[in-house]
Amino acid sequence: MPPALGIVTPVLHMNPRFDPPEWEITAGVDDIVTVVQRAEALGYDWVACSEHVAIPSSASTVRGGRYFDPFSTLGYLAAHTSTVGLLTHMAVLPYHHPLELVKRLGTLDVLSGGRVIVGVGVGSLQPEFELLGHTFDGRGARADDAIRAIRAAWGTRLPEYHGSHFDFEGFIVEPSGLARDVPIWVGGRTRRSLRRAIELGDVWMPFGFTLEALTDLLNLDVVRQSLASYEDTHGHPLAMVLAPEPPIDPAGQPERTTEFLAAYMALGATGFSLRFDHHSLAHYLEQMEAMTAVAAGL
Length: 298
Description:
The protein is an alpha/beta fold and 298 residues long. Helices cover 44% and strands 14% of the residues. The protein contains 12 helices and 11 strands. The protein has helices at 22-26, 29-41, 60-63, 70-79, 98-112, 126-132, 139-153, 191-200, 211-218, 221-234, 254-266, 281-296, and strands spanning 4-8, 46-49, 85-88, 91-92, 116-121, 161-162, 167-168, 184-188, 203-206, 239-242, 271-274. It has an 8-stranded parallel β-barrel with strand order 1-2-3-5-8-9-10-11, surrounded by 4 helices. A two-stranded antiparallel sheet has the order 6-7. Helix 2 packs parallel to helix 12, helix 5 packs across helix 7 and helix 8 (191-200) runs parallel beside helix 10. The longest helix has 16 residues, at 281-296. The termini are close together.
């Protein structure tokens, strides 16, 4: 079965590690819509938008400084599409009360006809936490409880939840998403994020790993045991959407791209969050189309 495909939507965030081309720096909203509509037409499963509010200038050379707001951006893109999934990649859980996320993403879910994918992470940029008035220490446990609270409240007009960090009942949240088991994808750059996905999520979506580093992590005995336990409990392996690094070139190097992605699938990848090696909008669109042919052969 071919892997699921999604894109780290260009222009919305430009990571300096991947040397963003000039067209992304100067692109306009129409260019973003062109990419997203083409992704939908080609059968991509989702488009993504990440979250940061304020990046310290000292960190911008590593993390980049541009981050479109995911809630308003995905809402805008929803109005220009009809089928492609809308992924927050990733919403920073400790920046929000879970009911805030249920209201924002639940509203988008209703407006888009059930296309929201709730991608979440715990965050790691301590200066941003401090600037926004959020506690950095203990964010992991707080995020775990937030995931449980989101599941309890999704699609429920009068949600009730009593957890370790969040406690609510007697409040109306409407809309709160369509009545469905909303997919929750857990991101991160640590082994703890994998454990969180196993315990609380539907998909593990790590980032910042080379193939070698990811191989080392997934081959640890304790990780293999945890994944085997998950499969025994759920009747299927944990879904893993992996982010190949460096960016791929399916148009220029289809055989090499096939071999590279096959190595990720051998680790258990069920989908890919893709960045392309590209130099213009036209080239990006060409890469997306070429990738569909590569994926068909995997």
